[in-house]
Thioredoxin (Leptolyngbya subtilissima DQ-A4), 116 residues
Amino acid sequence: MADDATYLTLTADNFEAEVMQSDVPVLVDFWAAWCGPCRIMNPIVEELAETFAGRAKVAKLNVDEEDALALQYHVMAIPTLIFFQNGERVDTVEGVISKDDLVARLEALLTAGSAV
């Protein structure tokens, strides 16, 4: 992964501040290096980070390194993508999903957030 990645790398140390206290929607990709479908999703997640920079956060959480967080959010399969808004889990997707579907879900959260 590039050092200039626009996505966040989440750990137990920064999860609370970056996700639960975020004032913008957050998409968290729960993944692992050995996971084939995760490797398929990786470039899509990186593109989303660039597309939504400044409007939403896109983050990756390695389940092998942060297993307690994966358990806390009941991640039973990877990749699992969880959408957070105002510190609340609002949507979850498991497995490979299209970029267009993810864009639509993030746009819907941004629209909902601006209506408040």
